Amino acid sequence: MAAREERERFDHLARLGWDLHVLGHCVSLLVPVADLPVLEMLTMDGAEVHITAIRRYCGWVFTLRPWWARLWWRDTWVVAHADNAAAIIVAEVNA
Predict the structure, then answer these.
(1) Which has the closest alpha carbon to 39: 53, 54, 57?
(2) CB proximity list for 27: less than 8 A, separation 6 or greater
(3) What is the pTM of this model?
(4) In the predicted model, is pLDDT for residue 73 greater than 70?
(5) Any residues with CB less than 8 A from the CB of 18 and at least 6 apart, and which?
(6) For 45-87, where are the E strands, in sequence order?
(7) What pLDDT score was predicted for residue 17?
(8) Cβ contacts of residue 28 below 8 Å, gap of 6+?
(9) Which residues contact 60 (CB under 8 A, 6 or more apart)?
(10) What CA–CA distance (Å, rounded) separates 32 from 37?
């Protein structure tokens, strides 16, 4: 993986983490040595949701996965460049 892509992924997750923090949510950016970074968010009821940034045909997107799921939710993603990406994610995970 190119260093530029890794840096873009980290930048998107860091920006989303800050936006979620501003909305009052507890978030942690997990940066493992040998894997992709993941943003961990606590929902209103205390459940953990893992968010990752991936590059798709439409650009960068955030994908969501609850702590209990082994697979990513295939239809749950938000375009990373959306100004209201954090608000969309909060609405999705607290629904």
Answers:
(1) 53
(2) 17, 20, 21, 39, 40, 41, 42
(3) 0.85
(4) no
(5) none
(6) 48-56, 59-66, 77-79
(7) 95
(8) 17, 39, 40
(9) 8, 9, 12, 53, 54, 79, 80, 81
(10) 6
**In this structure, are residues 77 and 12 in contact, taking their beta carbons and an 8 Å threshold?**
no
**How is the chain split into domains, by residue range?**
3-93
CA angle 84, 89, 91 (to 5 degrees): 95
The pLDDT score that the predictor gives to residue 70 is 57
Q: Which residues of 29-45 are buried (b: 16+ CB within 10 A; e: fewer)?
A: eeeeeeeebbbebbbee
Token pair, residue 20, equals: 């979620």
* Residue 8: count of CB within 10 angstroms of its CB: 15
